[in-house]
């Protein structure tokens, strides 16, 4: 995570059941063991920047195998509610929300409650603003499609990003709400092809992402209005570079004035 902490699984009994896999954390100075299970696999750890960790605790030697999602913070350790018995690949945000797969469903844990976001999804990820990206299977086209779902003010706005490029997998999201997916096409009598699809934020002048352009955004523009930007600073200030030319100057200010005091859809 951004604190420099690392979490991983150590296999302590290999190639025979019951499997013994336990979780360890390095906090930058020392390593400590987090779990002490004798017949369980503790895998797929994900850390947020507050030191909270979420992982999958599984019994793979059973047929069918079963697992649950475990969250551990400084205050508590708890098993997250889920309707399915095969839960895996959890992701955790810095505000404490979590998403994971439960069989073929996408589940979210938010405000101590569990909700189903999709009944035929996979590969979920989320950020601090309540945006979730994942892939969802279309039974008509037989393709996996990229989906973005925004959880804001108790509403769930769902967007289909692409449905004609092929199948998608392994989505990921950043703090700006931008998503990437791997896409691929493998026809029976044709050549395989694939690539990466990027959903990038538009440069509207709404820097703090509160759906309007106001004095708060103007303060950020005034701070950065200094001409050419280096690549490192442009990474964060690029949403103010409204004419896409690699700097913040009077041309960006003019475009900002045209957007000032407007709602951003």
Q: Care to describe what's here?
A:
The chain is 10% helix and 45% strand. The protein is mainly beta. It has a four-stranded antiparallel beta sheet, with no helix packed on it. It is globular and about 65 Å long. The two termini are 32 Å apart.
Quick tags:
265 residues; mainly beta; 4-stranded antiparallel beta sheet; 3 helices; globular
Précis, in short:
By secondary structure, this protein is mainly β. It has a four-stranded antiparallel β-sheet, with no helix packed on it. A four-stranded antiparallel β-sheet has the order 8-9-10-11, with no helix packed on it. Strands 12-13-14-15 form a four-stranded antiparallel β-sheet, with no helix packed on it.
